[in-house]
UniProtKB/TrEMBL annotation:
Molecular function GO terms recorded: ABC-type amino acid transporter activity; ATP binding; ATP hydrolysis activity
The species this protein was found in: Paraburkholderia sediminicola
Lineage, broadest ranks: Bacteria, Pseudomonadati, Pseudomonadota, Betaproteobacteria, Burkholderiales
Name under which the protein is recorded: Glutamine transport ATP-binding protein GlnQ
PROSITE patterns: ABC_TRANSPORTER_1, ABC_TRANSPORTER_2
Keyword Transport: yes
Pfam families: ABC_tran
């Protein structure tokens, strides 16, 4: 692993391990993520991808190792956890929008409660982000009135309303119908082009090739390949990655 100056690091992970009972999900993971880097995590189901990014904002508590986000170490210190979560946006497989709130209300809740923004300022910010992901015309609607693709774009806008420095995306298109996948991927591509630091778990290999600065291939709780996209797709180093890519291309 190349040495990276601390002031250039968005995320620093050293020796991260995590188990659920007797099942060892992550095995001594180490990873440096530079500010502005776009990293795609891929690999077979159960390889630890989602658990890894959930450890980056303490949605999962790691058993051992060190996790630093923007220079803040994630420990049991609740203040540190709050500071990191305030600056790290998270988009899940399922949209997790509040069904009893309008799109605009979903997007203003956290900025008002966590950032202390006044309602008018929060609404202006929310409308700006909804416009950015091309769903501003649906601001007064409820989630159930939107398609899956529109709901996921609202979830992305909601995360952006907190002005995050890092975005974590956990299979953001896996719950969508195929025709809705493209609109979400287009939104994420624009976000990447704006220079956001991103860690994205996905099986969308076309998106990975086009957007990622690095691709991490995980298997059995370990990062077994860490490569630039051209190298990963054209000359994977391991037989496991070759089999994975072969299966993905066949789909």
């Amino acid at each position: 692993m190349n040495t990276v100056p601390n002031n250039e690091l968005a995320i620093s992970i050293k020796g991260l391990s995590k188990s659920f009972g007797a099942f060892n999900v992550l095995n001594s993971i180490s990873l440096h993520v530079r500010r502005g880097e776009k990293i795609v995590l891929c690999g077979p189901s159960g390889s630890g991808k989602s658990t890894l990014i959930r450890c980056v904002n303490r949605l999962e508590k790691h058993d051992s190792g060190d996790v630093h986000v923007d220079g803040i170490e994630l420990t049991d210190d609740a203040k540190h956890v709050r500071m990191v979560r305030a600056d790290v946006g998270m988009v899940f497989q399922h949209f997790n929008l509040f069904p009893h709130m309008t799109v605009l209300e979903n997007c203003t809740l956290a900025p008002m409660r966590v950032r202390g923004l006044k309602r008018k300022e929060a609404e202006a910010r929310a409308l700006e982000m909804l416009e950015r992901v091309r769903v501003a015309s649906h601001a007064a609607k409820y989630p159930a009135q939107l398609s899956g693709g529109q709901q996921q774009r609202v979830a992305i806008a909601r995360a952006l309303c907190m002005s995050p420095t890092i975005m974590l995306l956990d299979e953001p298109t896996s719950a969508l119908d195929p025709e809705m996948v493209r609109e979400v991927l287009d939104t994420l591509t624009l976000l990447a082009q704006d220079g956001m630091t991103m860690l994205c778990v996905t099986h969308e290999m076309g998106f990975a090739r086009a957007v990622a600065d690095r691709i991490l291939f995980m298997d059995q709780g370990e990062i077994v390949e860490d490569s630039e996209p051209a190298e990963f797709f054209d000359a994977p180093k391991t037989e496991r990655a070759k089999r994975f890519l072969s299966q993905m291309i066949q789909k």
